[in-house]
Design goal:
7 helices, SMI1/KNR4-like, seven-stranded antiparallel sheet
Length: 170
């Protein structure tokens, strides 16, 4: 996919990370929760995060390709708005929203303007190198209430219906 033509609107295209930063991200994004992260979670009286885990799986090549085009950023197609996390935010946002607790094997990579998450569903092996994409509300995280919105990263990026409309059947 030619990312420069993938979206109708580019509100904010971010500079790409250096090769060193990008490789460090790929090697560490799914490390176990660190002692410092655990302290912060427990210190905020949120939860005992000792059992939280990130999937020990690689991101799809299409997503890696996008990050090499724009390290996060804000884009839109039709009514579908994306606030993609950059490589320095992905882990932080997933921990802050307790994704590993409520949706084990899911990884949030973006949000819309209403606080809904776009997530890779990594519970099963990828199909043609891609994971399904789920939409979930920040206030109601869990597999029971999320919706499948695409079968691949490219497909979700080309969609035009807002995930708010899909989640709440507007």
């Amino acid at each position: 996919m030619i990312w420069g033509k993938a979206f109708e609107k580019e509100y904010r295209k971010n500079p790409v990370a250096t090769q060193h930063e990008f490789q460090a991200f790929l090697n560490t994004w799914n490390d176990d929760i660190t002692d410092k992260e655990l302290e912060e979670i427990v210190g905020s009286h949120q939860s005992n995060a000792c059992s939280w885990r990130f999937p020990k799986i690689n991101f799809p090549d299409s997503y890696i390709s996008f990050l090499q085009y724009s390290n996060g950023g804000e884009f839109e197609n039709g009514d579908r708005y994306f606030q993609f996390f950059n490589i320095f935010e992905i882990r932080e946002f997933n921990i802050a929203y307790h994704i590993p607790k409520y949706m084990e094997y899911a990884v949030s990579f973006a949000m819309d303007e209403n606080g809904n998450h776009y997530l890779f569903d990594m519970r099963h092996n990828p199909i043609n190198g891609e994971y399904p994409i789920l939409a979930a509300s920040s206030g109601n995280l869990g597999y029971d209430d999320c919706k499948l919105i695409a079968h691949s990263f490219r497909e979700v990026c080309s969609g035009k219906i807002s995930i708010e409309d899909i989640l709440f059947e507007k």
